[in-house]
Amino acid sequence: MAVAVDPVETSAELTRTASLDYPILSDPDLSMIDAYGLRHRGGGPDGHDVAHSASVLIDRDGIVRWTFVTRNIRVRPLPGDVLAAVDALPGGPNAR
Amino acid sequence: MPPRVGISRPTRLAAVGLVLGVGGLLAYFYVVFHLGAWLPRVRNDAVPNWLLVAAGLFLSLRAAMHLAPGRRLVPGVLIGLNVLVAGAFVAILYVEPVVPLAEGPTVGVAAPDFALADQHGGTVHLADFRGAPVLLVFYRGHW
After folding, report:
1. Of the residues A67, B10, B88, B120, which has the maximum number of CB atoms within 10 A of its CB?
2. How close B143 comes to chain A (CA, Å)?
3. CA atoms of A70 and B69, how far apart (whole Å)
């Protein structure tokens, strides 16, 4: 799932234009983003607060197992690194 | 055959160097906007772009070493432009996009639950996904 401060309408538009099929969550007051320690004060284009660019992998029991927080917003986690983190989850990626 | 006039060797070197530098910079934008999903390492590290920019600077350096008195203006301008392009490349990749450090959630602790609206207007709880792994991708917004 993806999370941003954008309003629902913006996320719906992005879903259409980018053909996304996973949930895009709106956190306009940054309450959840704060709970995850990922508020970037003044980071938006007009100076409003936004989320840091980050990825968080949570296992089937709700435990954080892997994070990627970048200091350079160009840099994204490599797909292979994300998949390796999923493979390393306790009980395997699809265990129930 | 008439003697060749016009473009001096430093000018040619500097021109090719500028083309390489601009090409490295523009190719990076192309990777970011069109090929990032297929070339994630290039997107992150930009090694081919670095090689192009470095090759361009090398040619500019060679041009600068062979400047002839009285024929310095054109190659000098080209060299200066290439230095500016290389500086812009560094700034765009390593200065402008740097943000303050954030810790993020601690590995090994329970992820905070949440209830947020999705793009269809429904409400998503993290607890709904108990029993399956979840990847949360925080992004800065769509603008």
Report:
1. B10
2. 8
3. 49
pLDDT tens digits, one per residue of B88-119? 999 999 999 999 999 999 999 999 999 999 99
Q: What is the pLDDT of residue B4?
A: 58
Looking at CA atoms only, how far is residue A73 from chain B in angstroms? 5
What own/partner pairs with CB < 8 Å and gap ≥ 24 does B47-55 have? B48/B24, B49/B24, B49/B25, B49/B89, B50/B24, B51/B24, B52/B20, B52/B21, B52/B23, B52/B24, B52/B27, B53/B20, B53/B21, B53/B24, B53/B25, B53/B85, B53/B86, B53/B89, B55/B17, B55/B20
- Chain B interface mutation, best of A27, A49, A64, A67, highest count of B Cβ atoms under 10 Å: A64
Average pLDDT, whole number, for chain B?
A: 93
Interface test with B, best of A19, A22, A30, A32 (most B CBs within 10 A): A32
Separation in Å, CA of B29 to nearest CA in chain A = 11
- What is the ipTM, given to two decimal places? 0.91
**pLDDT < 50 positions in chain B:** none
Report yes or no: A49 at the B interface, CB cutoff 8 Å: no
Cβ neighbours of residue A18 under 8 Å, at least 6 residues apart?
Answer: none
